[in-house]
Amino acid sequence: MRANVKAKPKRGAPQRAPEDDDDDMPRDIEAYRLALARRISIGVSSVLKRWRSCAEPSCKRARGCCAPRGVCGNDKPPRPIKPEHDARNRAQLHRMIREQAERLEAAWKSR
């Protein structure tokens, strides 16, 4: 077995430009966002061990969530939000935004 030998690229294989390595931002931000959401969903499902009762054969084989359709098949639907909770949350968000705007305005004036 040879050690410390780099694999040669195949002939005709597309070569990456060196400037591609310097780019921190993905080329397609929407694809990146969807991939990140999928990884989060898989991680949560694996931690909660939902794969044990999943109907997907790939999840059972991998002994972890594979989310073959993009989301875990065993995810529970979110609970409906009650109108009184919704109104309270909206008021709290509005109050927080107003307070932050006042702080920023005071900081701007003190310059």
The coarse overall form would be flat
- Rg from C-alpha positions? 24 Å
Number of structural units classed as domains: 2
Largest sheet: none
Low-confidence stretches: none
Number of helices: 3
Given the helix and strand composition, which structural class is it?
mainly alpha
> Could you give the count of β-strands?
0
Beta-strand residue percentage: under 5%
In whole angstroms, the N-to-C terminal distance is 68 Å
SSE order: HHH
Overall pLDDT level: 77
- Give helix % range: 40-55%
Provide an overview of this structure.
The protein has 111 residues and is mainly alpha-helical. 47% of the residues lie in helices and 0% in strands. The radius of gyration is 24 Å and the shape is flat. The model has no long low-confidence stretch (mean pLDDT 77). The longest helix has 27 residues. It folds into two domains: 50 residues, no CATH class; 34 residues.
Can you lay out the helices and strands and say which pair or pack?
Elements: H1 29-47, H2 57-62, H3 83-109
